[in-house]
From TrEMBL:
<keyword id="KW-0378">Hydrolase</keyword>
<dbReference type="InterPro" id="IPR011583">
    <property type="entry name" value="Chitinase_II/V-like_cat"/>
</dbReference>
<dbReference type="InterPro" id="IPR050314">
    <property type="entry name" value="Glycosyl_Hydrlase_18"/>
</dbReference>
<keyword id="KW-0326">Glycosidase</keyword>
<dbReference type="GO" id="GO:0004568">
    <property type="term" value="F:chitinase activity"/>
</dbReference>
<dbReference type="GO" id="GO:0006032">
    <property type="term" value="P:chitin catabolic process"/>
</dbReference>
<protein>
    <submittedName>
        <fullName>(apollo) hypothetical protein</fullName>
    </submittedName>
</protein>
<keyword id="KW-0325">Glycoprotein</keyword>
<dbReference type="InterPro" id="IPR001223">
    <property type="entry name" value="Glyco_hydro18_cat"/>
</dbReference>
<comment type="similarity">
    <text>Belongs to the glycosyl hydrolase 18 family.</text>
</comment>
<dbReference type="Pfam" id="PF00704">
    <property type="entry name" value="Glyco_hydro_18"/>
</dbReference>
<feature type="domain" description="GH18">
    <location>
        <begin position="1"/>
        <end position="282"/>
    </location>
</feature>
<dbReference type="InterPro" id="IPR001579">
    <property type="entry name" value="Glyco_hydro_18_chit_AS"/>
</dbReference>
<dbReference type="GO" id="GO:0005576">
    <property type="term" value="C:extracellular region"/>
</dbReference>
<dbReference type="GO" id="GO:0008061">
    <property type="term" value="F:chitin binding"/>
</dbReference>
<keyword id="KW-0732">Signal</keyword>
<dbReference type="GO" id="GO:0005975">
    <property type="term" value="P:carbohydrate metabolic process"/>
</dbReference>
Length: 293
């Protein structure tokens, strides 16, 4: 689609038609990721992506339309360095949804436990591992020229599970043999049900450095977020005067209220509500909360 001006023009025409026919606010480009996965790809793909952004913005201006143009981008610096011209993104888009999650999951290259979306690096992490957190990612994008008013921080409503090699070694970074029994991606209500079912057998650890929890029971190990940990991330957004938060995804939050053990108000969407309440406080009404489903 981006290979030449003619094909990009066809795509932009379809964007305009869709926005107009459905009375939408704009378009978000979630392209994962230019110049990363295919060694045979056109080496100008990164440049073509920047051209696409410029041409969409130019068409908005030409037609005097106030449509939004946003992008969802990678968090790891190793991807950012080859995939994006951050200065061009900053020039043409309204805001940038940074996918600051999936920092750690089980793969054959990373056969050990890790935190899905740590806010800060852990004290024992150095070199590359110390870059896999929200704070480093945000500072990196700022240094590359992205305006803080355009930075939207991604917050997950799901966790990652692992199967421990040794039940007696359950720390972050412990050897793992695969995904856990709960599956590669674990929705928040499923985590709540697991804790409720095995309450006396589950150990929950709050990592004071990363500001996120993890749990383990026998060989099952899960990194996840709670209302408390997502509030820490929302506070980070406010303190750094960023644009807002993007939750991925709404359907992985607790929309039935199973996590509310007190059953007082049967709180629905506790993660989304927690982020919203922090961002709304103290009249920070310019910050946004984007919900993915």
């Amino acid at each position: 689609m981006v290979i030449n001006h003619a094909s990009r023009k066809t795509f932009i025409k379809s964007i305009k038609s869709t926005l107009r026919n459905y009375t939408l606010d704009g378009i978000d480009l979630d392209w994962e990721f230019p110049m990363v996965h295919d060694s045979n790809v056109d080496k100008r793909e990164r440049q073509h992506f920047s051209q696409l952004l410029r041409e969409i913005r130019t068409e908005y201006i030409r037609e005097k339309q106030n449509y939004l143009l946003t992008v969802a981008v990678a968090a790891p610096e190793t991807i950012v360095d080859v995939a994006y011209d951050v200065d061009q993104i900053n020039m043409y888009v309204d805001y940038v949804n940074i996918m600051t999650y999936d920092f750690h999951s089980f793969t054959k290259y990373t056969p050990f436990t890790g935190l899905n979306s740590p806010l800060y690096k852990r004290s024992t992490e150095i070199t590359y591992m110390a870059t896999l957190n929200i704070d480093y990612t945000v500072q990196m994008y700022l240094k590359k020229g992205l305006d803080r008013s355009k930075i939207v921080v991604g917050i997950p409503t799901y966790g990652h599970s692992f199967t421990l090699v040794n039940a007696n070694n359950a720390r972050v970074g412990s050897p793992a043999s695969g995904f856990g029994a709960l599956g590669e991606f674990v929705n928040y209500p499923d985590i709540c049900k697991f804790i409720q079912k095995f309450k006396s057998e589950v150990t929950i650890v709050e990592d004071s450095d990363a500001r996120v929890p993890y749990l383990y029971k026998n060989l099952e190990w899960v990194s996840f977020d709670t209302p408390q940990s997502v509030m820490e991330k929302a506070k980070f957004i406010k303190e750094h005067k960023l644009r807002g938060a993007m939750l991925y995804s709404l359907n992985a939050d607790d929309f039935t209220g199973v996590c509310d053990l007190k059953q007082n108000d049967n709180l629905r969407f506790p993660l989304a509500e927690s982020v919203k309440n922090v961002l709304k406080s103290e009249q920070h009404n310019k910050q946004i909360l984007r919900l993915e489903n």
